[in-house]
Every structure is written in C-alpha cells, then in structure tokens.
Structures
1.
Amino acid sequence: MNVVVLLGAPGAGKGTQAPLLAARLEIPVVATGDLFRAAVREGTPLGLEARRFMDAGRLVPDEITVRLLLERLARPDAADGVILDGFPRTAIQAAALDAALTARGAGVGAAVLVDVPGEELVRRMSGRWICRANGHPYHEVSSPPRVAGVCDLDGSELYQRADDQPDTIRTRMDQQLGSLREVIDHYRAAGCLRSVDGLQAIDRVAADIDAQLTAAGIRGAAGSGRAAGA
Ligand SMILES: [Zn+2]
C-alpha cells in the first residue's frame, strides 16, 4: 500500500496537485474534512463521536481522526494506497499516523512538500479582490479585471476583504507555517521527505512530484507497465 502525504501551505497549489496525482496513481485522495462529513452523514459510531466535538465547536481529537482514517484505508478502493491531503497537520498527528500504520504493517512511503516561499504565498493569497455589487471574484495575478479596480461584468468598484489583506494573511500564514514546519521536520527525520519547487507551472510541479515518487519507489499506473500488460 502506497501512503503518500501531500504537504504544502495554503496557496502552494497542493489542492490543485492532489486530484491530478490521484488520477495518475489511480488511488484516492483522502481529505480529513471529507472524512468527517462522510462519517457524520453515514452516522457511523465514530462519526457520531466526531460530531459531538464538531457540534460543540471543538477540534475532533487526533485519536478519532486517526481511527476514521484507518477505516477509510480499509476500504477496497484504498487497497493500492491513498494520498493524504490536510493530514497530518501537527507533529503529534504525524506520530499517531505512523504508529497506526506500523501496526498494520504499512507506513508513509513519501511525504511530498509543494514548496513555495512565504512571501510568494502572501502575494498569491492577498491578490483577491471582489466587486461591491455582486461579489464577482478577481485576482491581481491569475484573473485581473480589464480595468484596475473596476468589475468587468457590472462596472462596480472592486475591494479587498479584511481577510484578504496582506497583513491579515501574513499573520494567519505564520501560524499555519509553524505547524507545517513541525510536520516537515517529522518526515525529514523519518527519511521520507521529498520536496518539489512549487513556483513552477502546474504541469512542471506534477512532473517533479512523479519523479520524486519514482525515486521513493512509488510507482503509479504510468510507470508500472500494467496498462501495457507487461
Ligand atoms: Zn461584479
């Protein structure tokens, strides 16, 4: 079983790469937020436990999250492996995941970091503008309006929400990067950290992820020769 952990700060492009990688490796992406929602919807015993915490506005304890993950890993579509997106978020969670996988004779095969410098993350995250009339979204870099500060569709003024302003984003980013660094250090110490340059175009990042996974001994459908019947 290939367990691949995808790591990256918000805005690094991890969310873009996860489904692309899943398609190439023919294994599912498992995101913990989806796990919680599915377990709650299905009313499983663990789902009900998780819901008690969510209803109280508290974080679901790591122990419950790891048990939910293990249930997910036991499903038939995960037999060849999974890509974990959004978990582990802390070194404690990473250690809990290792212990649970080891008990099943498995382990994290590779932790791939989509690496983007902090200031570039702030630039990407803080370029969002929306229009006053209808909330149409724009981005300074990826989808700028034809005329700066004016909505293409209705001509109303564009503004930045407090949440999207650079200083707010920098503060939030510092907190998130702190726990990401813990997780990176955990996997570096375990010898399975792989890093790719997230400043490149999407297809170059994808190609580098493939190269890193191949180097780690993890092969997807493309590299296995299965399709060719070899
Ligand atoms: Zn508009």
Note: Confidence is low (pLDDT under 50) at residues 223-230.
2.
Amino acid sequence: MARDHEAAPQGPFGTRTFQLGRVFGISVGVDPSWFVIFALVTAMLGTRFEAQNESWPTALAWGAGLVASLLYFLSILAHEFGHSVTSQLLGLPVISITLFLFGGLARLSGEPARPRDEFLIAIAGPAVSVILGLSFLLLWIFTGNGSVVGEVCFWLGSINLVLAVFNLIPAFPLDGGHVFRALLWTVFDDLNKATRWSGLVGALFARVLIGMGIALAIFGGPQALSGGLFMAFVGWFLLRAARASVWQSRIKESLGGVRVGQAMQSLERRVDEWTTVEDVAEGVFAREGLAFVFVEDSGEVVGLVSLKAVGAVARQKRGFQRVTSVMTPLGEITRIGPRRSLFEALEKMEDSAQSVLLVAEADEVLGVLSREHIARVLQNRISLKN
Ligand SMILES: [Zn+2]
C-alpha cells in the first residue's frame, strides 16, 4: 500500500502520459494517442498545401504543414490554459492538461463552487480560440494569399474559429454543455440534476454525431471516408464521457449524506502482534466475515492487515508467520476524517491510487474504510429505491 503518492498521471484512455513540464503549477502532458493525430494533421496539411500551391516545392509545403500542425496544437493548449487559468483564479486548482487524440483535456480538482464559476471556466476556452482565430486571420490579411505565412495563418485562423464553434455546441462534456449545465444549475438549484440533464443532451448529440459520421463514411464517397469515421469516433468518445458524468452524478447523489464514520469498520476488532497469519485467516476473516483487522503492539494499535495481504501468504506458511509480517503500518495509509462524505472518500481513493483509507480525527485512529464498504452502502441504497 505504500505506493508513490505522485500517482502515475493518466490520460483519457487510462494510459500513461508523457510529461512535458509544469506551467502555472499545472502539469502538461501528451497522451500516446496524440502522436497519431499529430502525424495525421501534419500529413493532411502537407498534402493540402502541396496541392493548393503548385509553385511550392514539396519540402516547403510539408515544412509549412509541420509548423501549422505544431501551432494548431499550441492553440489547443492555449484553449485549455484559458479554462485552467480561469479555474485557478476562481480558487479551483487544476491537476493537469493533456493533449490527446480528440484535442485537449484540462482536469480540474473538483466541481466549480457555483453556476457563475462554471460558466466562466467553460467560456474561457472558446474565448481564447476566438481571439487566436481572429489574430491569425488578421495576420493573413496583412501577409496576403499565396505566401507561405499567409496560407498557414489562414488555416490556423479558420481552424481556431471552427474549434470555438464546435466546443460551444451545448452537448456535455463539451464547453457549450458546461455553459448549458451552468444555466440548468441556476434553474434547478441542484448540480446533480443539472449534470444528469446536460449529460442526457450530450449523449443524444453524441449519437447524432456517430450516425452522421457513419452515414458520411458510407455515402460520402472515398474522400469523406476518413472524415466520417473520425466524426463517428469523436461521437463515441463524447458518448462515453457523457454517460460517465451521468453515472458519477448518480453515485454522488446515492452516497449523498452518508458520512465516512457511518460506513467504516471501527477499531474494535484487533489482534496482538504475536498472532499468526493462520489465526487471522481462519479465526477472524473466515469466521467473522471481515476484510480487515487492526494489529496492536503492547496495547497500542500499530497496523492494519487485510484479507488480501493474508491471501498472498502460502497456506502451509501461515502457521509459522506472524501477522506483523503482512501488516501495513498505520503511517503509510492515507487518512480521512469521519465526517467527510463517502463521495469525497471515493475521490481521495482515486487521487491517491489506494483502495483503503484510514479514518482518523486529530491523530486518533477510528477505523478503516475500503471501496467494499462504499460499495455496500451503494448497494443498500439502490436496492431500497427499487
Ligand atoms: Zn474547452
């Protein structure tokens, strides 16, 4: 359980991201999938510049394509920084910004405190894209058609405006969906309800996008094939994200009001440091149906033993091995207060990549809380409703 607390940063597909550095205290990284889209956009631009400007040598067209592609992804980063800096200014820290297959993703450390904050954070990204788009178009007007700089600026200007418009579609979790949620939040005065409704609209839009993408790929001829497939792919990603946010808000609502102290296993069940692994396995876990037991040393609680840790010891060795050899010292387990909500506990588990938390208040250990304890509460709540 003593894992590094700087848990491996994960991209939207759960893969490890490549860290580029920290800006404004936010770690910036790229998901492996980004290299694919970077190569595709560069190739698309190289071919396009070459076809549209017959006087350009191939190397020049592809060089321009590479520069335009890099500036495009820098524009996306600037868009994400728009969200992130606003969020930080409003007191909501940002964990990371990641570039991936479908663009950029800023991970905030929680939900905004009120609808106004949600609106400002959401609108800041497209605002940056609009400013960038207009600036590049202005540069294009000054440099004119046909020149290399002019062509690159024209494409960057248009694509940034397209980016702003696409992101403003009111389909959660797109930026426009967040704006929509801020509006619903004001109307309902209930964030969970607002999330569910905007999630449903987002899922509907995602299905339309998938349908349109597939239709385009089938009936649009060979030129539209890759574009159509990509559109369907974006739709699939949005559908997944919309569903996840609806699901998360359901869980949050089901767990709402239940405190860590009400769901934890308390300190009462203990064994002393001389107990063997076998005694714990058969005497405590098998007979009492528990998954954890505290270990005390001369009357003082020093560690925690889990069913999982005991299970890892070979059966024939259990009788000769002391329980202290498989226990985790209390100091190594992340702590949480008993009055915190179960949802906060769940978030803390995700952030620290641990499945067990020590419940403690002002240095006094009170008990243990695991994912299973939370799952049990969730199960009871759901079966009560049905
Ligand atoms: Zn955005």
Note: The longest strand covers residues 94-100.
